[in-house]
Write a structure and sequence with these properties.
homodimer; alpha+beta; Arc Repressor Mutant, subunit A; four-stranded antiparallel sheet; 36% helix; DNA-binding (chains A, B); Dimeric_a/b-barrel (chains A, B)
Amino acid sequence: MSTALDPTDKEILRILQKDATLTNKELAFKLNKSIATVHERIKKLKEQGYIKRIVAILDRKKIDKGLIAFPQVLLKEHTAEALIEFEKEVAKFSEVMECFQLTGSSDFILRIATSDMDTYHLFLRNKLATLPNISTVQSFFVLSETKSDTAYPI
Amino acid sequence: MSTALDPTDKEILRILQKDATLTNKELAFKLNKSIATVHERIKKLKEQGYIKRIVAILDRKKIDKGLIAFPQVLLKEHTAEALIEFEKEVAKFSEVMECFQLTGSSDFILRIATSDMDTYHLFLRNKLATLPNISTVQSFFVLSETKSDTAYPI
DNA sequence: TTTGAAAACTCTCGCGC
DNA sequence: GCGCGAGAGTTTTCAAA
């Protein structure tokens, strides 16, 4: 099983990252390949894990997620167990879209989606701040989203 | 044109955010609706802008985007023109996946995807730092990605 | 990788609730 | 208004070469 991507594979990934509703027929036309070839390539790209999933991207403001916040969290204890415990607990909160462990002075940065500041405040008090081992939390709030892309350049 | 979502619409959005490869037939079965109804609902959800697009989510490590960084950028000038100019220029860089204007002391936070630290360094020196009006840039680097979700709770 | 044919799915229309 | 059935038109799938 070769894992290297040839130019056709890369082009498929480039296109599907932007629009995964294209039919195999349309893709085949763009790539000058047969439909069966395109189908086979995509199947392999999924099997090999290049494509993790195909999802719908929603307009968050329309579904009442008007506020995005980035709390930076510093922990008291930095043992392996403490880090893992924090990650495990924080992942359970539905407001937490992403959780990254960082280098530097902040241990973690989260991306939180809530409807408004009141809801965020409740999340902070009733959920995040109740976790053991938290030292400090400094929250940044998004005023505007200038660029938001899920497609990596390939 | 009503804009409120009924429980069926919400369930459709919930499902498609996690897996948009389900056929209308499968969705119809899950929802106890007819195929035609499901089809009609999804069409409306796209037309009304709830669903912005359907995309493939890739495994970034497999496509040589091993490093995610969050540079926080402070500008010198804070006029409307200066902010807009910065947003416009930064959006052109292919390494920039996201750009948020923030409240608080940092003006912007970016999410940058590169293959490694060397490439990030080049991005910083040759691209980001060449923009006019930048005061300071403080970069955080991701050690590990604990949670990464594109699906909002609905 | 391609072809070709069968199976599955999509999408629209018109009727009924 | 909303949902459903049926059918033509597309797309996908899976042989075999």
